[in-house]
């Protein structure tokens, strides 16, 4: 089953230093990319900054809240 979650992309720094990606439905999931496309790619990695590769079996995966 494929679940779709909203992602928030915000510029990092004032000089175009890349983008920070967060997923409001998964508190603590934060990652970064030098470009919008890289940030989108990085946020799809299940172990992005603090999320375990076992996120499905640990109960971190749930239906999107929105």
What's the short version?
The chain is an alpha+beta fold. The protein has one helix and three strands; from the N terminus they run E-E-E-H.
Helix percent reads 10-25%
What profile does the largest beta sheet have?
3 strands, antiparallel
Low-confidence stretches: none
Cα end-to-end separation: 17 Å
The helix/strand class is alpha+beta
Q: Mean pLDDT score, rounded?
A: 76
Global geometry:
elongated
Number of helices, where a helix is a run of at least 4 consecutive DSSP H or I residues: 1
Please provide the ordered H/E string of secondary-structure elements. EEEH
Radius of gyration: 12 Å
Count of β-strands: 3
Name the beta content range. Answer: 15-25%
Strand order of the largest sheet: 1-2-3
Walkthrough of the structure:
This protein has a three-stranded antiparallel beta sheet, with helices on one face. The two termini are 17 Å apart. It has one helix spanning 36-43; strands spanning 8-11, 19-22, 30-33. By secondary structure, it is α+β, with helices and mostly antiparallel strands. The model has no long low-confidence stretch (mean pLDDT 76).
